[in-house]
Amino acid sequence: EYEEKTGRAHRPLSPKQNVRKNLDFEPLSTTALILEDRPANLPAKPAEEAQKHRQQYEEMVVQAKKRELKEAQKRKKQLEERCKLEESIGNAVLTWNNEILPNWETMCCSRKVRELWWQGIPPSVRGKVWSLAIGNELNITHELYDICLARAKEKWRSLSTGGAEVECEDAGFSAADREASLELIKLDISRTFPNLCIFQQGGPYHDTLHSILGAYTCYRPDVGYVQGMSFIAAVLILNLDTADAFIAFSNLLNKPCQMAFFRVDHGLMLTYFAAFEVFFEENLPKLFAHFKKNNLTPDIYLIDWIFTLYSKSLPLDLACRVWDVFCRDGEEFLFRTALGILKLFEDILTKMDFIHIAQFLTKLPEDLPSEEFFTSIAAIQMQSRNKKWAQVKKMLVFDNR
């Protein structure tokens, strides 16, 4: 019929041409469906319907332009914010390198530096600031790290070949204990920041992480390796050279709070939990009562946060900002951060039961907004009845005795 109307001669079509002819009448988009005339073998559109379709099309074009404009404005805003952030970081790097770090002893406690510290330390100077803030009370040298690492490697060889026990200062610790510790290190390394794929077998930092953890078990056989240490060591490796990471790692774990948790000093851990609850009730009375009603004790969520210094629970960039202020304020900030998390999600948590609260706090949302998170932490007051964190903790230690 089509050929007769157009006066074209009839000739057989190839399969390819036949397919193309069929496609001529298929709408390829919503626009085509609305605007194109109907195929010749169908009745033409009524004028009213054609006008309606034309209006629909014009509305679609208007909406599409609005969306495009909105997206363009959003991209422009994101670009401006990124440029502003980069400029801010660049200025901060200059300030840290030219003013603060050369005069660390006199400037580290000034108000200006503390305010700059709160905003986050630029990644390029973060490791240096952490090292200075953590300090080196243990007087560990690069040479001592090499000695501990050599001893660790000797133990690995001895245990892998089933040889005699290595004679060393930690002779009181059996080969079985050391072997269990080394096996735990191997297992934990594979579970350290798995999404980054840099600490697992074959990754660029696998051997470095293994070396630091192994060296530490030789440096502190009384502590050994405890789950959670791998995350702390990994964060330090990302910001410091290997030997400096070991020095910071050893000194960090030697702090009272970390030593209490990693040596599982139950009495001291309970003191920390009790002090935390004092400030929990002071800052978030409604949520505190809800947790009490559901028998949700601090150990259920705090232990994992403290053991890994939030590096496992928070997005890595946010965890590093927590570390920044932790290096400035000490252990108090770890518990202030915990209260900041609870405050941020207070409305959600008050509607949950024991199981759902525990699950939520064990695996926090991955898209935590940085500024909102730190605003929540800033709103927490670490003072109860005119007593600060250290005073409350000291009072509770005395009471427990």
Automatic annotation (TrEMBL):
CC annotations in GO: cytoplasmic vesicle; vacuole
PROSITE patterns reported in the protein's UniProt record: TBC_RABGAP
InterPro entries: Rab-GAP-TBC_dom, Rab-GAP_TBC_sf, Rab_GAP_TBC_domain
The keyword Kinase appears for this protein: no
Coiled-coil stretches: 47-89
Keywords: Coiled coil
GO molecular function: GTPase activator activity; small GTPase binding
Chain residue ranges for the region called Disordered: 1-23
GO BP, one annotated term: vesicle-mediated transport
Pfam families in UniProt: RabGAP-TBC
Keyword presence, Coiled coil: yes
Location of the Rab-GAP TBC domain: 120-330
UniProt cross-references to PANTHER family, sorted A to Z: RAB GTPASE-ACTIVATING PROTEIN 1-LIKE, TBC1 DOMAIN FAMILY MEMBER 14
Protein name according to UniProt: TBC14 protein
Source organism: Ciccaba nigrolineata
Upper classification of the organism: Eukaryota, Metazoa, Chordata, Craniata, Vertebrata
